[in-house]
Each structure stands twice: as structure tokens, then as C-alpha cells.
Design a protein that fits this description.
This protein is mainly alpha-helical and about 180 residues long. It has a domain at about 10-130: hpI Integrase, Chain A (Orthogonal Bundle). It has helices at about 10-25, 25-35, 40-45, 75-85, 105-120, 130-145, 145-155, 160-165, 170-180; strands at about 55-60, 65-70. A two-stranded antiparallel sheet has the order 1-2. The longest helix is centred in the C-terminal third of the chain and has 16 residues, at about 130-145. The chain is globular and about 65 Å long.
């Protein structure tokens, strides 16, 4: 299986966002949430309207059981405010079409992302919902150089885990291998 990669280019992120905008508000909000919160897709799909009826999102991560408090930035709130206007507090934010109050599946979320990625000419085998989380984390690391901040944001257990997660170690090894010619 190929390793999922982050998207480093602002232009590529914008192209994917535009492609998802064509699909509707829900796909656009899914992407926007993913790249602006660094949450796992399982946590994103579990969000209900009542969880975002303010300027913060409070949740308990499914994987780690850790509590998170995330400020919802303008990228999210600009889309969210109009989207939830007619929804009830108990409804899932990313409600599926199968009837009832159930979120879309992880498979459907992945399909939404992969269709947009393919439409902009990227390899959908290397990009998944997890790419959203990795893209934000890598961007923050490159902007700040603070791996401890990234570690805390991702709720990782160590800086080494965060570096490996971002592929930083491999990038450094690759640069050394390319630059050191004997």
C-alpha cells in the first residue's frame, strides 16, 4: 500500500477546494474542516451541529480518548454559519442521504476527497482523508519549525512520532543521499 502524503502546495489545496465547491457545501465543508482542524476523519464525521454552535469545537477524540478544544477559524465559520442555519442541534454536520440522522461513512468521505483529487490531476492512491490532517500539520511545522506544537496539535505521544508522521526524517535522509556523492 502506498503511503498517504500531505499536500504542500497552496495552489493544489486551492484547486481541490474549488473542485469540492462545485460538489456542494457539504463536501466543501468536509475539506475545510479537515485542513483547518487536523482532526481525524472519524472525529470529523462524529461532529453534530450543537458541537459547533459557537466559536469553538469541543470533542473527545475517538482514537486517543483525549479531549480537544479547537477554535473554529474564519475558513470554517464562513461556510458553517450558512450551512447549519436550518439544521437542528442534534443533527450530524455531515449527514448522509440514507435517511435518519446518520453521518456519511468514512468510505463516502474518502470517495468525495479522491474524486476531487483525481479531478485536479493528482494520484488518488497517494491521497486520502488523512491527507487533510497531514497537510495542515506539515504547513504548521514549516511555518513555525516547532515540532512540539505539531505534536500537541496532533495529540501524538512524542516528537519523534510527529516527525515520522510528517515524513521529515525521510526527507532529510533523501536530501543527504542526493547531496553526498562519494
Amino acid at each position: 500500500m502506498n503511503r498517504v502524503i500531505p499536500i504542500e502546495s497552496d495552489e493544489t489545496l486551492a484547486l481541490i477546494k474549488e473542485e469540492l465547491k462545485k460538489k456542494g457545501t457539504m463536501p466543501l465543508l468536509l475539506w475545510t474542516f479537515g485542513v483547518n482542524t487536523s482532526l481525524r476523519i472519524s472525529d470529523i464525521l462524529d461532529i453534530q451541529v450543537k458541537d459547533v454552535m459557537g466559536d469553538k469545537l469541543y470533542l473527545k477524540e475517538q482514537k486517543t480518548g483525549k479531549r480537544q478544544e479547537i477554535v473554529l477559524n474564519k475558513g470554517i465559520t464562513d461556510i458553517l454559519d450558512g450551512y447549519i442555519k436550518t439544521m437542528q442541534p442534534y443533527e450530524y454536520l455531515f449527514k448522509g442521504r440514507q435517511g435518519g440522522n446518520k453521518p456519511i461513512t468514512r468510505q463516502r468521505a474518502s470517495q468525495i476527497i479522491k474524486e476531487a483529487v483525481k479531478a485536479v490531476g493528482l494520484n488518488p492512491d497517494r491521497i486520502s482523508c488523512h491527507t487533510m490532517r497531514k497537510s495542515r500539520a506539515l504547513r504548521i511545522y514549516k511555518q513555525t519549525g516547532d515540532i512540539a506544537l505539531v505534536m500537541k496539535m496532533l495529540n501524538h505521544s512524542s516528537q519523534a512520532v510527529s516527525l515520522r508522521y510528517l515524513g521529515i526524517e525521510q526527507n532529510i535522509i533523501d536530501e543527504v543521499n542526493l547531496g553526498l556523492v562519494l
